[in-house]
Every structure is written in structure tokens, then in C-alpha cells.
Amino acid sequence: MSPYKTILLAVNPNESDAQSLIKKACGIAAFHQAKLHLAYVEPGVGDHSYNDIEFGLAEYGEEISEQRLTHLASLAKDAGYEIAAFHMARGDVARQVKKLNNELGIDLVISGHHHHHMGWLMGDIGAELSKKLDRDLLLIKA
């Protein structure tokens, strides 16, 4: 019996390694015969993205979120594994991933690991996830 029944991949569809991360997560989910959820969190503070804060327009944030979700679905279309659900959130990435983890009963969280050009502002997402999650975390260098 597999220890991982439900897996969450936290991925930014605009990163160059997004498709590779999705394929790797699909392979892991297939091996464990697990449900795979894909999530994108528009980075920010609390429950607000930096775009929400900068532009002060909720509609702009919603439009960007829809574009990211569409892009994520298109990347996953050819991944070769059924995606259980797509999730979108805005705000503190580690906090939002933890919230999804709790809501969905996730057994394993997968995330890409790379240095962000705004690292001074966003910090190390992997370290934050490691601190906040009470589940297994797999960081993949894609």
C-alpha cells in the first residue's frame, strides 16, 4: 500500500521548468496510483497577491489568475496522467499551500526549487514550506 494517496504539485505555469515539473509529478503520482492536484499561488502577502496590492484592482488579479489557470491546464493536458483538480490562490505561498494541504488531505507536496529573481522579497519558498507543512515535501530541481 502506497504512503501517498493524494499529491499536490505547487507550480508556477510561467516558469520555464513548469512542464518538466508537471511530468515528473505525474510520474510520481502514477507510481503511487495517487490523485494529483495542481496548484498555483500568485505570490503576495496574506491572502492578496502583489498584483492586487500594487494595482489595487481585484479584477486585474482575477484576470491574471484565470490566465495562469488556463496556462496550467494547457501544460497538464499532455502530461499523460489525469489531474484530479486545479487550484488557484493568491497571497503568501507557503500559507496558501498549507491551507490547500489541510483542505484536501494531501500526503505529499511537490514543488520546484529554483532561485527566484525576487528572492529578497519572497524568501526561500522551499524552506517556508518545510517549516509550515506537517506532510512530506519533495523539492525538485527541474
Q: Please trace the helix and strand order, writing H or E for each element.
A: EHEEHHEHEHHE
Q: Give the N-to-C terminal Cα separation.
A: 28 Å
**pLDDT < 50 stretches:** 117-122
- Count the beta strands: 6
Strand residue content: 25-35%
**Could you give a short account of the major beta sheet?**
6 strands, mixed
What is the typical, i.e. mean, pLDDT? Answer: 81
The helix-and-strand class reads: alpha/beta
Helical amount: 40-55%
Q: What Rg, in angstroms, do the CA atoms define?
A: 14 Å
Number of helices: 6
Dominant shape: globular
Description:
This protein has 142 residues and is α/β, with parallel strands linked by helices. Helices cover 46% and strands 26% of the residues. It is built from 6 helices and 6 strands. Strands 1, 2, 3, 4, 5 and 6 form a 6-stranded mixed β-sheet that branches. Strand 1 (6-10), helix 1 (18-32) and strand 2 form a beta-alpha-beta unit. Helix 4 (93-104) packs across helix 6.
